[in-house]
Design brief:
This protein has about 140 residues and is an alpha+beta fold. The protein has one domain. Helices cover about 20% and strands about 30% of the residues. Strands 1, 2, 3, 4, 5 and 6 form a six-stranded mixed beta sheet that branches. Strand 5 and strand 6 form a beta hairpin.
Length: about 140
């Protein structure tokens, strides 16, 4: 019986913040969601631990289109909890089974270390572009 194994190539190179940041010049509403911070949010243990977490928990469906690019977007709240997890610019009802599986992995992650501005924890939108290559063994 073939076992589907996910291999995550260049994950550490593709983890990134893909949008322009807040300039900090204007007064912000109390619950702003930032896209760039002086101290960005972090997965506990860093990027290598994040890569291992995704590799361990990803259970991709048995289908041919599991390989590819998954532009995951989510908000890391002030308390480190994740919310609004999804595929960037794509409605959930149009996700493939593989996309839904990757979103599930992200939703079930442990809390992150939140981002900060001047020592104050703030919410931040985070973009996690995953390049996945699955192979049959």
């Amino acid at each position: 019986m073939n076992v589907r194994t996910a291999i995550f190539k260049t994950l550490l190179l593709t983890i990134g913040i893909l949008s322009f940041g807040h300039t900090g010049k204007a007064a912000e509403p109390k619950d702003s969601i930032y896209t760039f911070l002086p101290k960005m949010p972090q997965f506990p243990g860093g990027e290598a631990t994040l890569s291992r977490y995704i590799s361990k928990h990803a259970k991709l469906p048995d289908e041919e289109d599991c390989q590819g690019y998954f532009p995951i977007s989510f908000i890391i709240c002030k308390d480190g909890k994740l919310t609004a997890v999804g595929i960037q610019d794509k409605a959930s009802e149009t996700w493939t089974a593989a996309e839904a599986a990757m979103v599930k992995v992200i939703r079930e992650m442990p809390d992150w270390i939140p981002g900060e501005i001047k020592g104050k924890k703030v919410a931040c939108r985070f973009y996690l572009p995953l390049h996945i290559c699955a192979r049959l063994e």
